Amino acid sequence: MELCLFQLLTNSVIILLVIIVSLPDASKVATSISNLWPSGTYGLPRSMLGCPQSHDFEWKTGWRYQDTEDSYPNNRYSNISFHMDTMIWKNNLNKTFCIKGKNISEEKGGAWPKGQFCIYKKGDCPKQLSEGFIYWDDEDSNNRNSIEGTLPDGIYNHDTKIFFCCRTDGNKSDPIILPVNKPFYLLAYGSSECQQVKGALVTEEFIQYDTEDDSSNKDAWGGTHPNVSHEVPGSSTLVITYCYYDSKS
Ligand SMILES: [Ca+2]
Ligand SMILES: [Ca+2]
Ligand SMILES: [Ca+2]
Ligand SMILES: [Ca+2]
């Protein structure tokens, strides 16, 4: 009888241990719903509410004033929904960026998750993201392009060439995990459809850029770049899709 009781107790202890060991580690769970931005250096469009949150790094900001077409100018944006920290006039625009530098402590953010989206390039593209660019042929006459602060990698003279890093190997409808406690932007890749993000409502927004009307318009894009198209085939007007993410709660 005593032996039986001992056996019972021993079994109970073993079962309890098995349960404890198989319970998820609280710290691991916390990491998997991370509030950390992926490692590396890169940029995002800045929302009207500022840069996304950060822990062990600071977002630097900068802006690019783009002097776009002056003749019958037609810059536009998605006025039903638009949250970018950007001034858009018919003939010019000024957009701002959030640029992530290196983490202050060891990099803990991990890799960008598998998906289909683009971000601005700053230094080397993060792992698994490939590089591309968009070139805007800005106004040729009396061009007043200007810059200030920290910008994505690019060429900022009388025209604008900006480099991007895109991840292309996932499925847009499989939500990826990113910090959603402050709104942020990604750029759409491949089509105007946006990547889904866990816990966030996503809105497709756009900017239509009226680039130089001259017949020698030099608008171009290459490599792995965000979704961009002419407003009308062959027109000197570019449309780019921006994805705005806001927490569901
Ligand atoms: Ca202009
Ligand atoms: Ca030009
Ligand atoms: Ca012009
Ligand atoms: Ca044009």
What are the secondary-structure elements, in order, as H or E? HHEEEEEEEEEEEEEEE
Number of helices: 2
Q: How large is the share of residues in beta strands?
A: 35-45%
Q: Find the structural class using helix and strand composition.
A: mainly beta
Describe the largest sheet: 15 strands, antiparallel
Radius of gyration: 23 Å
By DSSP, the count of extended strands is 15
Shape: globular
Q: How confident overall, as mean pLDDT?
A: 89
The helical percent reads: 10-25%
Determine the N-to-C terminus distance: 58 Å
**What low-confidence regions span 5 or more consecutive residues with pLDDT below 50?**
16-32
Q: Which ligands, by name, code or SMILES, are bound?
A: calcium ion
Task: List the topology elements.
Blueprint (H helix, E strand, L loop, with lengths): L1 H21 L3 H7 L9 E4 L13 E9 L8 E2 L8 E3 L3 E9 L16 E5 L8 E7 L9 E4 L4 E3 L3 E8 L16 E5 L11 E11 L9 E4 L4 E3 L6 E11 L2
Pfam families: ApeC
Keywords: Signal
Protein name: Apextrin C-terminal domain-containing protein
